[in-house]
Amino acid sequence: MTSRTAAVLSLLALLAAPPVAAQQASSYTSDEAKLYEAAKAEGTVVWYVGGPLDGMNAIAAEFQKVYPGIKVETLRLVGVAQYQRFLDETNAKKYLVDVLQSTDYPSMVSLVDLGHIAQWKLPTFDKIPERYRIKDYAYAQYTSTNAIVYNVNKVTPEEVKLLESGWEAVLDPRFKGRFSVSSMKCGVCYAPVHMFMDPKFKDRFGPEFLRKVVAQQPAVYAEVLVTLDRVVAGEQDFTMWGWESAAAIKQMEGAPIRWIFPKPTPDFGNSWQGISKYSTHPNAARLFLNWTMSEKGALAMERIYGGYSTLQGIPDVRVYAQEKWYAQPKEIYPVDWERWGNNYHKDMDEWAAIIKRGRN
Amino acid sequence: MALFLTAVVLALAVIPLVYVFDAQFYKETRVGLSEERSLDAVKAVYASAEYLGYLANALILAALVTALSLLVGVVLALLVARTDLSHKSLWDTMITLPLYLSPFTGLMAWITLGSEKTGFINHILRKILGVFIENPKPLVNIWSYGGVVFIMFLFFCPFVYLFTVGSLRSMNTSLEEAARMSGATAITGLRKITLPMCLPAILASGLLVFVLSVEMYTVPGIIGATVGFTTLPWKIFEDSTAIPVHRAHAAAGGCLLLFVTIAGVWLQNRLTQVSSRFVTVGGKGFQGRPIALGKYSWLAVGIILLYVLLADILPFGALLIASFMRFSASMITPDLFTTKHYVAFFTTQNMMAALWNTIFLAVLTGIICVLLGFVISLMDLRRPSLVTKSIAFLSILPVAVPGLVYGLGLLWTYLQTPLYGTIWILLLAHVAKMLPYGVIVSRSGLLQLHPELEESARMCGATPTRAIASIAAPLVKPTLIAILFFVMLNSIKELSASILLYSSNSHILSVLTWHYMDNGDYQYAAAIGIIQTAIMIGIVLITRMLFRARLEAAFGQ
After folding, report:
1. For residue B244, is the peptide bond before it cis, meaning its omega torsion is within 30 degrees of 0?
2. What is the ipTM metric for this complex?
3. Which CATH class is domain B2-31+42-276+294-324+337-554?
4. Checking phi first, is residue B529 left (phi over 0); if not, alpha (psi -120 to 50) or beta?
5. What is the rounded average pLDDT of the residues A125-151?
6. Which residue positions in chain B have pLDDT lower than 50?
7. Which of A137, A275, B412, B423 is positioned for an S-S bond with B506, CB 3.0–4.6 A?
8. Do B519 and A52 make contact, defined as CB atoms within 8 angstroms?
9. Distance from A345 to chain B by nearest Cα, in Å?
């Protein structure tokens, strides 16, 4: 072996070896000033995000303003793609990420169960309701609430009232061919199906209700955000497959849309954040997670992104929530994560089959 | 050299594809593959009516797109290269302009233009026709099967045009002249002499369009759900990305598409097997008179203008307008106007890095693919052996597998190496995905070059390398430049493999465009699309100045 080959192999071995930080036991200070000093020495935090890149970059920029000297590098990997990438990297001992933000709750639960997420009790731990936490490992940044999003130029106030009364209102003959649904498989896409398929609603909703929805000849879109865009453009009058945070971004831009929460309204914690157990910037990761789940971080997120923070006891600063037309959901339907995990595939396949049969 | 090329092909094509091939034989978990072997996915994909139906949908769609692209592309090429039409340079540029736009961005433009109720076209026509008719029906609806074929055709037709026009221009027309002098009409000359002589170029372009159409998942996927049809690539996309993930199914689907493409390549090779039939650049060249269009010149201009309107003016215009809008709307009003997307682009930290990474990858991928493609084809044609033929064959395989699946193979291959997490793994992916074009196009160029030219040099005492460097390389220089243009443009647009391999320090524009589209921020994505197009035009202009060659003129020579 030549000395050059030996040097290259040594370098490769060095790069492949787990970083020192990954092997250290987790003993990090909760003192913010000390944590900031240690984080500054690390200089960077790599954040795998599942939410919209624009909003997440803006949140990262806000953090960098508060804590100069620490750069947040974002990489967008949505849902299960993030889970797979993280596991592939971890199995190969490539420790590239510090903080994970997953839009898929079961994936985050699995990572916690597999021991890949570091235990970290946030300073605001007690202000986060239990259903938005996975023990003291991961925390939902905001909630996703399904809604009927409508174009204000296409739906009359009287029709809005009717739709507000409950999901069954979409079956009214006047709405035939005027709205859209999505066949996409994703968390916010599944949430309404999950509720409609809930055994406790089998007489009220169930597959029969979904069949009736399809009989109303809705436009079916493969991408759930296309359903929203088509409402914004006025191509469709409203979408049944909308959700608040996505609609809020468009509405804050000035799009002629509003939304209502028919009763009951599916609601679940989204953007589950946890620190990789193998983080190479463990102090920066902790400082960052602390900040995003702090009052200041939550308010910045609400202001910039329009999501509804899971942190309790903070003022609601979402711009649209201050407007007269806006009304909070009256009857929340909290998703059942266990049934979600077990039935997701079956329910979504049934929904796809109902759409297909409805067309034939 | 053969050893080096074998190593390259192994690293780029064979090992990643072996990983993909192997992946189909595993049992699946909710989010990936288990350790346990299983034939479930293979049975489900290769032997179920469901998946074979998706494959049939993809093949039928690709056949329609290819047929339409060949018909229009060849007609346009004949009009520009073989007739006395004026402003040829302008038509060259305009017909090839769609290459500067990714089909997915083009789809977004056409959604803005051709949606049933709110598309700009229907909106304007409704206003005009509304004066004469009550409630006029919409003229176009892009959310239809025809819409999918139409959009894919618009953006793939330039490939056929480029290959054919280049071949027509470099062709020795003495046979055509002889036919005319023997009393054949212009049409008979074209049909019996010209087109058969261009067959390698036409077949190469047809194969390329077919392969690109078969593996495309975005356009058929997004419109397909609304129309009620699913193609295999879209199913592979769903299998790879939606929960529960079906990685083994995705791998099996990718292999199925690979087999289809292998059959296509085999067919193309059979059709062009007797390469001497297509030799048109010999030791002597002759350019004959162009066909006089006479009173039909208005028709020729009309055909070209119609294509230019549909493929360039309308989509680029819509995209430009969209990039300055705050959100989607059917009417353009001043209050919708904003420059914030462009401001954000030039002030966001990821964006400038992505811009430079994109340029870096495009240039380097282009250079590598030109060199490797030329050498691989040269060895295949001039030193035919099992090894050189195998290298040529294996090197084109990655184009046949959907980028998402191939990207997974590459990820599994290089995950444990220092390349992972850097821009170099993206370079590998881009080279692997673009090298097939380098091989196919340079093969097409070399097929038209008679070995007698190099043999003459050898007889005068030149070494084989000298004969290639002094004779073959300069004669196929336009083809090599065409490959450089083509690969750089496609590298800038490459998305499907890159999306699996990019990291926080190797952002590129195509991936960012996808993320903004995925976020529903179509206007920001449109702005990035416009910037991407500007970069492509910039790179082409610089290359044009450096090599004193034009993309349109260089292709297929």
Report:
1. yes
2. 0.82
3. mainly alpha
4. alpha
5. 96
6. 275-276, 282-284, 556-557
7. B423
8. yes
9. 6
